[in-house]
Each structure stands twice: as structure tokens, then as C-alpha cells.
Amino acid sequence: MNITKLQTFLTLAECLNFTEAAEQLYCSQPAVSMQIQGLEHDFGVPLFDRVGKKLYLTKQGEQLKPYAEQIVNLLQSAKEHLQQLGSLTYGTLSFGASNFVGVYLLPAMLGHFNRTFPGIKINMNITSSRQLIDMLETNKVEFLIISDQIPVDETRMQAVTFYQDELVLVVKADHRLAHEEECSLEELTAETMILKPKKSATRIYLESKFKEHGISFPSDMEISNLEAIKQGVIHGLGVSIVSKFAVQQEIKSGLLVSVPIKGVALQRGIDYVYLKNKHLSPAAKQFIALLDRQKALIASP
Questions:
Q1: Neighbouring-strand partners of residue 240
Q2: Radius of gyration over every alpha carbon of the chain, rounded to an integer in angstroms
Q3: Residue 148 CA to its chain's centroid (Å)
Q4: pLDDT at 158 (0 to 100)
Q5: Measured between alpha carbons, how far is residue 32 from residues 12, 50, 57, 222, 275 in Å?
Q6: How much is the pLDDT for 88?
Q7: I need a surface site. Which of 46, 53, 59, 194 has the fewest CB within 10 A?
Q8: CB 167 within 8 A of CB 244
Q9: pLDDT tens sequence across 37-92
Q10: How far apart, in Å, do the first and last CA atoms of the chain sit?
């Protein structure tokens, strides 16, 4: 068995079309068929079913897919590591990040890293927590940068907190609470609270904090995107509790006002997470060292 067969299998497993797979792999359709037939011979099982004009993965093919991803990605990681051993003049820094982290927290640090190692290509994947964990487990990325509210398997993954993110209540400039020195959670029950969807780590964290104080918010609006939440507050759809770091520009410009909540401290850790048995590339190690020194490098907008 060779790695080309696995790469061909993964490409076909994604597009489920021989013609499209051949175009992506810059080869002929018969060549794709031969690679798949060879792989099926190696394993002694069928990997694809053809029903009518449609192609499907068999159960065996579905089981093989994550292993093939790990093998192909691990080989690519090994090549990257070997190339970077001499110097960090070329290679790739590949990691996953949650939305808040990737959009607001990391750009300043990535800029610093890029100036220090201009030959290293940066590949940051911003997606859902579930997809991020899957990408880490299949070696599609070397590490993740996520909220400590996202559960990880601590028997297999190492999580290190490098930043404490403060969450604050924000209201529009002419809101009744905008000129108050502070407000209570009870006062907020009359407001429409704009929150992330129920399964999001931020939403789960906030609801647990509300519950600690015996408060629930019957009137809420769900918006999955942080920028959209900010715009919703600015345009009077409701109030929200978001990362202070993410609304600094809007507060500075007067579009939003931050109002302290009496007796409630809202903080979450931001972690970098990697597999315990993972050999991190020199580029990844350099960036993680940068995260550990982040306080001087996270620039205020």
C-alpha cells in the first residue's frame, strides 16, 4: 500500500464522483479507479457502493476514512517538521480557532509571528468547536485555541490557559442602563437578552452563572455570530453579554456602553490544546511560546 492510494481514497470520499476526483488529483478517471481497486484489494473489502449514478461510501469505507486522514496528515506533519528543523524559513503553521479567538484575539499575535518568521505560511481554521475537535483528532491541525468552556478529553489532550477573557454587559448608547454605574441581574430580566445558540460554550457558561444567582432570562434572542450580536445591540434589538476585548472599538466610539453587573464576575480562560502524544512542529512550538508571552502582544484595537 502507498500513500497515493489513501490520498485518492480521501479525495473520492469527499466528492463521491470519479470525474471530479480525477480533476482534483490531476490524473485520469481510470487512474482513480485503479488506485481505489488497489486499496480495496489491499484491505479485502469494498470501500464504495454505486447505486444508480450515485456513489456512496460503504460502512468499511466510512470506518477507514478517519484512519486515512490521520495517516496522510501525519505524513504531511512529518515533512513539515523535518523541513523546519534547520530553520523556520519555510513551512506551515496550521491550527484551529473558535470564532472569537480567531477574529479578535489572535490577529495581533499572528502579525508579530509573521514579521518574525515571514517564510512560515499561516493556516488558521475558524469553525465550530465540534469540528475543531475532529480536526485535532485527525491531525488536520496541530493544535487548537479555544475557550476553556469547550470540553476536551483530558486523558488524551493537554489544555493550557494563556489568557483570561472578561465578559461584559453591553447596551446601546441611549439605553436606560447606559448611564448607570452598575445594574443587577434582576434588572436584566425585563430586557431581551441576545445570546449565542443554546449549544454554544458561551451560552452554556452564561446560563450556569445566571443559575448560580437564581436568574433565568425568559425573553431572549439567539444569534450565532458575534458581529451580528453587536449590531443587534447597536440597533436596539436587545442587550448582550460578550467579550470585553471584542467590543473595545464600539465602546470607544460610543456605539455601545459597558455596564457592570453588581456582584457578578464573568471570566473565561482561553486555552491552547494539543494531543498529548503529538510531536509539535518547530513553528507550532514558537507560536505557543508566543501565546505564553501574550500579555504584551495583544494590542488594543
A1: 170
A2: 24
A3: 12
A4: 95
A5: 8, 15, 15, 45, 33
A6: 75
A7: 53
A8: yes
A9: 989 998 999 999 988 788 999 999 999 998 898 888 888 777 777 766 566 777 88
A10: 52
pLDDT at 295: 61
Name residue 107's amino acid. P
Please say if the pLDDT value at position 271 is more than 90: yes
Q: Which residues of 8-25 are buried (b: 16+ CB within 10 A; e: fewer)?
A: bbbbbbeeebbeebbeeb
The three cell numbers of residue 199 are 449549544
Distance between CA atoms of 68 and 233, rounded to whole angstroms?
Answer: 46
Q: Report how far apart, in Å, the C-alpha atoms of 23 and of each of 42, 91, 106, 132 are.
A: 25, 26, 36, 28
- Exposed / middle / buried, residue 165 (Cβ in 10 Å: 0-12, 13-18, 19+): buried
The beta-strand segments (E) located in the chain are 48-51, 54-57, 91-97, 120-126, 143-147, 157-172, 193-195, 220-222, 240-243, 256-259, 267-275
Question: Per-residue pLDDT for 294 more than 50?
Answer: yes
Q: Which residues pair with 222 in a beta bridge?
A: 195
pLDDT band at 282 (very low <50, low <70, confident <90, very high): confident
Whole-structure pTM value: 0.71
